[in-house]
Design brief:
Helix content: 25-40%
Largest sheet: 3 strands, antiparallel
CATH topology: Flavocytochrome B2, Chain A, domain 1
Distance between the termini: 68 Å
Radius of gyration: 18 Å
Bound molecules: protoporphyrin IX containing FE
Strand order of the largest sheet: 1-2-3
Oligomer: single chain
């Protein structure tokens, strides 16, 4: 078995999470989920998702997770919304610049 620096944090779950987050945030590939017209950055959340890896399916380009999120968490949507709002996010649509908007 190969040695990993994370083994120094054995038994210190919170520190492990923070260390793994630091590694994650250095990665250039971010993972996003589309919910009601907004992309939410779930890169650091994915491995903590209590519902497991199924969430990854919804990070694929073109996937809209809105229905899945509402259906799988219908008894806890208030909590889910608070969690979503704590993630970095961006609108799914960009406002075209004025030049392109000109109709005449
Ligand atoms: C970023 C968006 C999401 C957040 C913040 C989130 C959060 C959570 C949380 C907190 C739970 C624990 C149970 C609860 O409180 O409802 C959970 C469970 C679960 N989630 Fe998600 N989730 C997200 C996206 C998804 C997606 C896209 C799916 C796709 C199918 C999914 C499927 C599930 C399933 C199957 C469970 C287990 C439900 C159960 O055991 O009753 N989640 N999620």
């Amino acid at each position: 078995m190969s040695w990993s620096p994370l083994s120094l944090l054995e038994g210190k779950e919170e520190m492990k999470d923070a260390a793994a987050d630091a590694v994650d945030s250095n990665k250039t590939t971010r993972m996003e989920i589309l919910y009601e017209g907004r992309y939410y950055d779930v890169t650091n959340f994915i491995r903590r998702h209590p519902g497991g890896n199924v969430i990854k399916l919804y990070t694929n380009e073109g996937e809209d997770a809105t229905q899945a999120i509402q259906q799988f968490h219908n008894r806890s949507m208030n909590k889910i919304m608070l969690m979503l709002k704590s993630f970095p996010s961006r609108p799914a649509t960009t406002v075209p610049d004025q030049q392109q908007c000109k109709l005449y």
